[in-house]
């Protein structure tokens, strides 16, 4: 499957490139994140990002198509990750895959046991880039 086109904010890209530079670049999550940053079609200012695009610290509602299960996830930096609270690290496979997605797009999510799940982005419930919350 071809990955969907993505839009990223320049601020997110700058911060994520700093994060990548601070980590061991052989870690699988680092490689996946760099791949996502490299394939961004559009870079915009944080005040120009459409409200239906996933940015860092966005809370999203997505559905796993096979089971119909809904997930409410927040895309965070590794230090803030907490699976019990639905806070998913940008370095997790689903985290880097969600970054830059637009409502209605879907991603393949590598699941444990070698299965691939299809996640569809239903809603960006909150997007700090649009609301001025730029915490790292």
From TrEMBL:
Gene3D superfamilies: 1.10.286.20, Transcription elongation factor, GreA/GreB, C-terminal domain. Pfam families: GreA_GreB (PF01272), Rnk_N (PF14760). One of its GO terms (molecular function) is kinase activity. Signal peptide: none annotated. GO terms for biological process: DNA-templated transcription elongation; regulation of DNA-templated transcription elongation. Keywords: Kinase, Transferase. Residues 4-41 form the Regulator of nucleoside diphosphate kinase N-terminal domain. InterPro entries: GreA/GreB_C_sf (IPR036953), Rnk_N (IPR029462), Tscrpt_elong_fac_GreA/B_C (IPR001437), Tscrpt_elong_fac_GreA/B_fam (IPR023459). Residues 50-125 form the Transcription elongation factor GreA/GreB C-terminal domain. NCBIfam families: PRK05753.1 (NF004396). PANTHER family: REGULATOR OF NUCLEOSIDE DIPHOSPHATE KINASE, TRANSCRIPTION ELONGATION FACTOR GREA. This is Nucleoside diphosphate kinase regulator. It comes from Pseudomonas fluorescens.
């Amino acid at each position: 499957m071809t990955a969907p086109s993505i839009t990223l904010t320049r601020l997110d890209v700058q911060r994520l490139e700093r994060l990548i530079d601070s980590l061991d670049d052989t870690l699988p999550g680092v490689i996946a994140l760099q791949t996502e940053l490299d394939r961004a079609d559009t870079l915009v200012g944080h005040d120009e990002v459409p409200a239906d695009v996933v940015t860092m610290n966005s809370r999203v509602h997505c559905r796993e198509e096979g089971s119909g299960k809904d997930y409410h996830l927040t895309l965070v930096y590794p230090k803030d990750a907490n699976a019990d609270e639905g806070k998913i690290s940008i370095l997790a496979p689903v985290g880097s895959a969600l970054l830059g997605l637009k409502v209605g797009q879907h991603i393949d999510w590598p699941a444990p046991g070698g299965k691939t799940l299809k996640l569809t982005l239903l809603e960006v419930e909150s997007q700090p880039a649009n609301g001025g919350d730029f915490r790292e």
